[in-house]
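Re-run with default settings, no changes from the original entry. Doing this only to confirm the output is reproducible before filing.
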Amino acid sequence: MAIGQSLAVFLAIESVSLAFLFFISLIFLYCLLHKETRKRAFVLVFLSFAVFFVYTAIFDKFNVTKWHGNETKLTGTVVSVPIIDGDKLSFQFSAEKEKVEVRYYLQSEEEKEELKNLLVGMTCQMEGKLSPPSPATNFYAFDYDKYLYYQRIHWLFTPAKLRIENCIPPKTTPVQWIRLYRQKGIQFIDETFPEELKGIASALIFGHRHMMDEATLASYEIFGIVHLLAVSGLHVGLIVSALFYLLLRIGVTKERVYEILITILPIYVIFAGAAPSAIRAALMTMVVLFCLRLKVRLSSLDIISLVYVFYLTWNPYIFFHIGFQLSFLLTYSLILSAKTIFSRFMSYWKSLLAVTLQAQFISLPLIFYHFYEISWLSIPLNLLYIPFISIVILPGVFIAFFLSFLFLPMGKILLLSLEKAVGFAHELLAVLQQVPFAVITVGKISPFCALLMFASVVFGLYLLEKQNQWRLLFLPAGLFLLILIGVKLAPYVNPYGEVTFIDVGQGDSILIELPFRKAVYLIDAGGQLSFYEDEWRKRKKSFDVGRDIVAPYLKAKGITTIDKLILTHGDFDHIGGAEEIRKAFRIKEVNYPAGLVKGEYEKQLLTNFQKKGVPIHFVKEGDYWQKGGQSFYVLSPTGEEQSENNRSIVIYAIIGGIRWLFTGDLEVDGEQRIINKYEQLRTDIVKAGHHGSKTSSSSAFISHIEPKAAVISVGRNNRYNHPHKEVLDRFAERNIRIFRTDEDGAIRFVISRHKLIRIEKAKKD
């Protein structure tokens, strides 16, 4: 049933064609007719598939909004814990049986203190503006629109003003009571626990990671140990075991204990944030307790399948949640192999190693599919951190929380010890992040490759269970490595290259990949200025264009080395993301415009590159290079420009038989110098200077280069009102096709060695 349901949910929601559905049906029919002994199993799979396909299709069809978007006044209930990060407040709000995501930007420190009293369950009146969530605007990027859609949220709401006096206290329903005390518990940790301990304690006790330090959480994710911060079977086991023992000791019968625990577990799930791993663990435990109470025997495999079917029926969208996928996948694999592992490995450390290895290998296809990379340090760190978190920190923070709640001075003694232990563990992760080649990046793999990798791992585990079949392990291992090597080497045998204008908002970042990946060039790395004048406005989770937009795209492409990082000039919206690019990739050389380096950030950035041993070439007019049959000519600067924008590196390139002109932020004076110097400069595609400002892309310059298309890299609703109407009119008058990152998202030009193959937009029309 679980297998049939999974296939049904995937096909129904992903809107796969009827031809594919017919093909799947033929496979079921073939299996049904040719395996008499398995007829009942295949009938059940087929019936499960048919029933849940119809159910999921209907479920998805009714996931629509009732609103038109012009509603301005909402009255409803706060349904998630309000999160205040710097000057930003966010929470989910239910009004008229429809949820919205609320985002409010705080105006003062006093307002911030006031709104800390906003509680989950409060009924509020708000006036503001609805807007649809933005879909992904870069290839392979996180799709926020789909993420909210799977939560049945169709709108973002921005209040004009949010006041606590417009809210009334929460209703005293059981669920609201639990959510309220969860919020108060999180606030108690924030106010009383040491800074180093806040994040991990709130994550382990309440499933709330928002207090985790950004760099520390990134370390957990990079090294594949972030699962230790999730509320899962370990937490449920700890709670159930402790209560079971205490209740028996005070004289409660076993039957009553089972009933009490069955009642308590749903309450704990809400307290723990109702993450997929917590729900899965609690439901499995409840089924076991039901069986014990009713004296019914069910296998572990039947229990996990029953929970899976129930969970997916309740919410088919959860199938696409990475936490759900990993939680059930790992649980299934451990249930199937537990007997073999624990019969062969009697010692704790050997069985821990076996379980860790199996968990790592079975999850690899999913990790590569979703995250494109993995650290080879993951296995040893799991062996070290699993017992550390589960035996020391998890019970420690629970005890410290209750002690602090009852008698704060006593709790603080334990908190100091835990703080030192956690601080040391986090420092170790920070040091290991500096280890060269600690992360293996393969790039985005296709669903087909992920399935093949998964099949090879499952086959390998099957052979390991059969002691006389170990010699055949080279078959699945070879297939797995072949797929991995194939994905890694694919760009080097690909005759197509790409020029991608990455959507970095108000800034520039252009990735050039030559055919057969003869070279990778990155022109600028974007950058977003943070206008934090006051300390209270600073956010724990800061946004960096280089780390959060440019680097993920490059990693999805399987890029680990940049042959040239070309920083056109010193404006922050061009070089602000370069520091994170320096940390994440091997850079063979940096190209910087000749002339005086003025800005402090520029100087520090170039110094950091030098310290890392990256050569810095100060380029100017007359420099050129060729690679893979493609040519690049530097037309500017001369090195004597007074204006920062006119000191931009301007590159005329012939890539894939197409003539490109990359202009940085070149303005009219710089354009005129190029007109005077280069009489013949016809261009096919021009990157419009200075984000479409009216101080660039003059009529004379456009007439001189005669482009067929122009790309404007510009931020949505930017405060400079770029691109300027005059510039758009100049292009339109000459029938020049315009691409804009604010409207089209990232724009990718796919080329061969001699021609343009196609143009792709990340944001679909």
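The longest helix spans residues 378-406. The mean pLDDT is 89.
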